[in-house]
Amino acid sequence: MKRVTASAPGRVNLIGEHIDYNDGWVLPFAIGERTRVTITLRSDSKFRFTSAQKKSAIEIDLSNLVPSKRRSDWSDYIAGIIWALEVNHRVDIHIDGQVPLGAGLSSSAALECAVALGLDHLFSLGKSKVDLARLAQRAENEYVGMPCGIMDQSISLMAESGHALLIDCVTLETRQIPLDLRSEGLELLIIDTNAHHALVDGGYRERRERCQSALRQLGMRSMRDLDEAQLELFGNSLDEISYRRVRHAVTEIARVHQSVALLEKKDFPGIGKILSASHHSLKVDYEVSCPELDLAVEVAESSGALGARMVGGGFGGSAIALTPQEKIHEIKEEISQAYREAKFAPPRFFTAQPSDGARIESSE
After folding, report:
1. CA–centroid distance for 173 within its chain
2. Is 3 helix (H, G, I), strand (E, B) or coil?
3. Please, where are the H alpha helices in 219-288?
4. How far, rounded to the nearest angstrom, does the alpha carbon of residue 136 sit from its chain's CA centroid?
5. Who has the most CB within 10 Å: 108, 195, 205, 263?
6. Inter-residue contact 107 to 101 (CB < 8 Å)
7. In terms of Cα–Cα distance, which of 130, 140, 129, 139 is closest to 171?
8. Of 18, 76, 24, whose CA–CA distance to 47 is shortest?
9. 3-state SS assignment for residue 187
């Protein structure tokens, strides 16, 4: 029997939100929570998917592994990878997903990348990690129907422990940026608001399409070709909403480069200010925040965090707060109290340190 077990992590994006599909640079890192998949070769005509977190199995014929016949459930992420990799051998795939669902930590990319790496290993496909990232993005775009960029798949596959990864989302060139928060007496606190998002909808797609439309109006090929001065000069040709969407993208790309320079100097108060500026831009210009995220950020900052912002696609999910270690307990308590008073669902908290990317756990 041929069998392989592979795993891939979720991620936190330190800075560069809604920038991967806008042709910019992003600075994510992998978290410790991972999704593991065990893939076993079958001898019959079915693909079979099971999950430690789901009660029932899903069986699919090869003829039904096409985007037009997607099921619109969790199995689409697996089926999409099989489709993108053009795998014809029938397999069992069992999943154990430990990346929190709906929290903006890219549980979907963790699943896609674990499956992609496992299938590549099992069938000796010879794909590079860049190849697998692009194929996983294609699966999510064309099979699942989610118009995501390539950041989540890239960091899930290419991360290194102790580093954030600067990714050029056009060329996929990368640079490992050392990130050791604990040696500086800091933690990155993740606040899962429990306002769980669902991005396969019009909100995410509308923003991407509006940015593309705005570039056409400006006669520009990419957001990376714009800076704030040019936007001020030419932006009066855009409607007010399009102008703000573009302003977020342009200023967020600048914040990524500023953050790399600050990390190299270990200027963490400066990083905190950039995180807070990013949240303001996502809230006001890109309009992808929500009351739960805004409250978490506001309370974290007022309780001693160096800076905080929402992460992920938005409309729910998680926020991050760059926090002195001695302030962690106080910030958690203050946010929990504020959520009780606002009658929000109780938040969940955990901390994140930069971890390794996807790997083969075993093979037989």
Report:
1. 18
2. strand
3. 228-234, 240-264, 268-284
4. 13
5. 108
6. yes
7. 130
8. 76
9. strand
Interstrand relation of 307-310 and 359-363 (parallel, antiparallel or unpaired): unpaired
CA distance 227 to 26: 16
Span 8-27, pLDDT tens digits = 999 999 999 999 999 999 99
Report, as residue numbers or ranges, the catalytic residues: 152
Where would I find the beta strands (DSSP E) of 299-347?
307-310, 318-324
CA-nearest of 26, 7, 8 to 254 is 26
Q: How many CB atoms lie within 10 A of CB 117?
A: 27
Spatial distance between the Cα atoms of 70 and 63, rounded to a whole number of angstroms:
11
Pair 14, 213: CB distance under 8 Å: no
Residue in the structure block whose two tokens are 């307990």? 329
Q: Find where tokens 């946010």 sit.
A: 335
* pLDDT tens sequence across 305-327: 999 999 988 888 899 999 999 99
Name the strand (E) or helix (H) holding 292: helix 291-302
pTM: 0.90
Could you tell me how many residues make up the chain?
A: 364
> Distance between CA atoms of 349 and 295, rounded to whole angstroms?
15
Q: Which of 364, 184, 152 is nearest to 266 (CA)?
A: 184
Phi-psi region of 334 (alpha: psi -120 to 50; beta: other; left: phi over 0): alpha
First to last CA, the chain: 8
Closest CA to 192 of 332, 64, 80, 322: 332
Ordered domains of the chain (ranges, CATH):
3-179 (3.30.230.10), 182-352 (3.30.70.890)
Q: Per mean pLDDT, which range of 90-104, 120-134, 265-279, 345-359 is the poorest?
A: 90-104
Say how far apart CA 151 and CA 170 lie, in whole Å.
10
Cβ-proximal residues to 228 (8 Å cutoff; 6+ apart), any chain: 247, 250, 251, 254
The secondary element (H helix, E strand) that includes residue 297 is helix 291-302
Joined together, the tokens standing for residue 247 give 């302003």
Residues 27 and 45 sit within 8 Å (Cβ to Cβ): no
Phi, psi of 340 (to 5 degrees): -60, -45
